[in-house]
Amino acid sequence: MKLLILNGPNLNLLGVREPEIYGRKTYADLENYIRAEALRLGCEVEIRQSNHEGELVDWIQQALGRVDGIVINPAAYTHTSVAILDALKAVSLPAVEVHLSDVDEREPFRRISYAGLACRKTFKSFGFEGYRMAMDFLCSDA
User: What is the pLDDT of residue 44?
Assistant: First the structure.
C-alpha cells in the first residue's frame, strides 16, 4: 500500500510556531516519525508539505492512479479551501484528515473543516500519533 501524506501551511515551522499548541518537535521529526510508522505498518509513504493551496490541489490530483490513500493535514486551509475539498472528491481516494491540536477547542472558525467532508475519518488532538492512527486506519481498511 502506498500513501500520500500531505501537510499544509506553516507545518514546516513546527517546533518554532506556537510551541504551546504544537509542541517543540520539528517538521523533520514529524517526517522521521511518519517514515518509522510506515515501515512498521509495511506501507510506502510519500510526504509533502506546501504553504500554497494550488500546489496541494495539484498533488492531490496527481495522486490518482499512483497511491492507495491520502493522509492530509490541510492546516489553515482546513477552514477555507473548497478547492482542496473538490480535489479530494474528484480523485475519490480514501482520505483521512489529521490535526495535531484539538481544533474544536480553539477559535470557533477552526471548527469548520471543508477537507474533512471528503475524508473517511478525522484524527485531532493526538499530535504526531494522529498520523500513525490515520495510516493504520487506511492500511487496515484496504
Answer: 97
